[in-house]
């Protein structure tokens, strides 16, 4: 069977998400999706002595729980595909030290969640593995420290800034009899519209999300109405309306099915500026909230479009614009 | 070659249009309100400084010239304490330049970097990163002072 559709979509016939688990920090636990998260920590340090260890702890907890939920043990998992936002993706790699599962590290900034899931699904489809654990993490304070200023620094942020989600989302991908299917993955290309403000990721990433969504519709012949929900990863209140507008200009009316993980994870009265960001934004919403709704058959077809801004503190200080990318994965229940 | 320059021009035009549209759609920082908040908070910090200075003059027998140093030290102490307690960044988000420009903002930039990098050790972490933000203030402060002093000296010579 041909598994490539159009220019950049992969079609899968035997890949399922067998289980998923999510661990989050305090602010996410106070948000509207709190009931969908498996582990909620009241303490941003998660009982550790550094922010970096705290992020790793979240990752380890989500990993352990997802494996347990699938009824598997670590030595039955053939591969771990994971990433995060920190330099040299230390959270994922140190978690792989802990898990002792054969490991491939990936980096796609905030698009890492779906990049890892797409690769996992492809390797399962190609019979290279029976079970793959796929996930990512981010932590508000480690991200602030690396990309912006010290956490206690009193600089003023503009209203279009975003709040990096503290959490980790992990899924077990494999062949099996239960769980929603991974049906399609559309791999995005870099879109750089020349935006340079590192606080304004929403405007920078919206065109990349649109590019991938349009490519997905073209490759699969689907339309927005074919989905119960289409979510972008972290465009938040600035990028979300822009993406909606651009899609409408291209003839896709998204008004009834479209939402954004960065808007879903926090309530409007939480002080998070324009909304959530970070690889955990799409990961915890997908692997917590959306997976729950899929398993309850409340949703049957969902397209998750994780959006990533591939900048570094050096690249923007050198005046370079922000290259952006988005990867889409369609997750759906089998039709009866 | 001709065609590719045409392509690039078209691409640049598309980018320019998008940037304009994005600028229009994103929320503007409320400059007037922010300026007012900065004015009030900056003023309050200065009033606090004046009060501390008066206390040093009145109760600790400092002369007006010498009361400045302990006053600044006290303000720095308060700022560092508030930074450590996790309060100063919240004041900063509210007040902007109002809490960044006074000496308390300078102290916050040093203390916050020191706290942040404590986990990387005392020498390379705290020592190496403390002036990460404050460093440029010092560098350009010294350069500006040098230029002003030079101008003053030249004017005096004439």
Protein architecture, described:
By secondary structure, chain A is α/β, with parallel strands linked by helices. Chain A folds into two domains: 14-174, Peroxisomal Thiolase, Chain A, domain 1 (3-Layer(aba) Sandwich), CATH 3.40.47; 181-332, 3-Layer(aba) Sandwich (Peroxisomal Thiolase, Chain A, domain 1), CATH 3.40.47. Helices cover 34% and strands 23% of the residues of chain A. Chain A has ten helices and 15 strands. Chain A has helices at 26-29, 51-69, 90-99, 112-125, 140-147, 201-220, 236-249, 261-264, 279-295, 313-317; strands at 4-5, 9-11, 16-24, 39-40, 79-84, 103-105, 131-138, 163-164, 167-174, 181-186, 229-232, 258-260, 276-277, 301-309, 324-332. In chain A, α2 packs across α3 (90-99) and α6 runs parallel beside α7 (236-249). The termini of chain B are far apart. Chain B has helices spanning 2-25, 31-59, 68-84, 88-95, 97-100, 103-116, 122-129, 134-157. Chain B has one domain (34-157). Chain B is 81% helix and 0% strand. The radius of gyration of chain B is 23 Å and the shape is extended. In chain B, α2 packs across α3, α3 packs across α6 (103-116) and α6 packs antiparallel against α7 (122-129). The interface between A and B is large, with 31 and 41 residues.
The structure class of chain A reads alpha/beta
Shape of chain A: globular
Can you summarize the main beta sheet of chain B?
none
Number of DSSP helical runs of chain B: 8
CATH architecture of the largest domain in chain A: 3-Layer(aba) Sandwich
Task: Look at the structure and name the CATH superfamily of the largest domain in chain A.
Answer: Stage V sporulation protein AD
Radius of gyration of chain A: 18 Å
Q: What is the CATH T-level topology of the largest domain in chain A?
A: Peroxisomal Thiolase, Chain A, domain 1
Q: What's the helix-strand series of chain A? A: EEEHEHEHEHEHEEEHEHEHEHEHE
Topology order of chain B in helix (H) and strand (E) letters: HHHHHHHH
Mean pLDDT of chain A: 96
Q: Report the helical percentage of chain A.
A: 25-40%
Number of strands of chain B: 0
Low-confidence stretches of chain B: none
Largest interface: A-B, 31 and 41 residues
- Count of alpha/pi helices of chain A: 10
Transmembrane segments (chain B): 31-52, 72-88, 95-115, 135-155
Pfam families (chain B): SpoVAC_SpoVAEB (PF03862)
Protein name (chain B): Stage V sporulation protein AC
Keywords (chain B): Membrane, Transmembrane, Transmembrane helix
């Amino acid at each position: 069977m041909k598994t490539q559709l159009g220019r950049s979509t992969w079609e899968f016939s035997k890949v399922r998400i067998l289980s998923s688990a999510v661990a989050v920090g305090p602010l996410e636990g106070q948000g509207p999706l709190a009931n969908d998260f498996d582990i909620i920590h009241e303490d941003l340090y998660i009982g550790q002595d550094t922010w970096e260890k705290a992020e790793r702890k979240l990752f380890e907890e989500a990993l352990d729980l997802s494996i347990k939920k699938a009824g598997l043990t670590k030595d039955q998992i053939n591969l771990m595909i994971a990433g995060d936002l920190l330099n040299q993706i230390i959270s994922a790699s140190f978690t792989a030290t802990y898990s002792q599962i054969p490991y491939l590290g990936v980096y796609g900034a905030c698009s890492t969640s779906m990049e890892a899931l797409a690769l996992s699904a492809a390797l399962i489809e190609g019979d290279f593995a029976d079970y793959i654990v796929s996930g990512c993490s981010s932590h508000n304070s480690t991200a602030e420290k690396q990309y912006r200023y010290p956490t206690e620094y009193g600089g003023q942020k503009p209203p279009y800034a975003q709040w990096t989600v503290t959490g980790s989302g992990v899924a077990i991908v494999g062949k099996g009899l239960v769980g929603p299917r991974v049906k399609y993955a559309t791999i995005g290309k870099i879109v750089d519209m020349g935006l340079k403000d590192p606080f304004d990721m929403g405007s920078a990433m919206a065109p990349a999300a649109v590019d991938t969504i349009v490519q997905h519709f073209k490759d699969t012949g689907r339309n927005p109405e074919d989905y119960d929900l289409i979510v972008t990863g972290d465009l938040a209140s600035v990028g979300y309306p822009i993406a909606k507008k651009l899609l409408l200009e291209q003839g896709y009316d998204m008004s009834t099915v479209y939402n954004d993980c960065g808007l879903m994870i926090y309530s409007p009265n939480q002080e998070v500026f324009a909304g959530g960001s970070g690889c955990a934004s799409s990961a915890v919403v997908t692997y917590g909230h959306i997976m729950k709704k899929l398993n309850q058959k409340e949703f049957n077809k969902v397209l998750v479009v994780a959006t990533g801004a591939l900048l570094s503190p050096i690249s923007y200080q050198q005046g370079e614009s922000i290259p952006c990318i988005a990867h889409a994965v369609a997750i759906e229940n089998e039709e009866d | 070659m001709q065609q590719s320059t045409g392509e690039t021009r078209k691409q640049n035009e598309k980018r320019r249009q998008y940037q304009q549209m994005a600028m229009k759609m994103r929320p503007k920082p409320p400059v007037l309100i922010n300026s007012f908040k900065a004015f009030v908070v900056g003023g309050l910090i200065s009033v606090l400084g004046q009060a501390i200075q008066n206390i040093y003059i009145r109760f600790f027998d400092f002369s007006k010239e010498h009361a400045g140093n302990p006053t600044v030290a006290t303000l720095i102490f308060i700022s560092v304490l508030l930074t450590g307690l996790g309060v100063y960044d919240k004041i900063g988000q509210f007040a902007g330049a109002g809490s960044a420009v006074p000496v308390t903002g300078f102290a916050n930039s040093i203390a916050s970097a020191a706290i942040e990098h404590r986990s990387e050790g005392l020498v390379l972490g705290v020592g190496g990163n403390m002036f990460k933000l404050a460093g440029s203030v010092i560098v350009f402060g010294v350069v500006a002072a040098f230029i002003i002093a030079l101008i003053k000296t030249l004017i005096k010579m004439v």
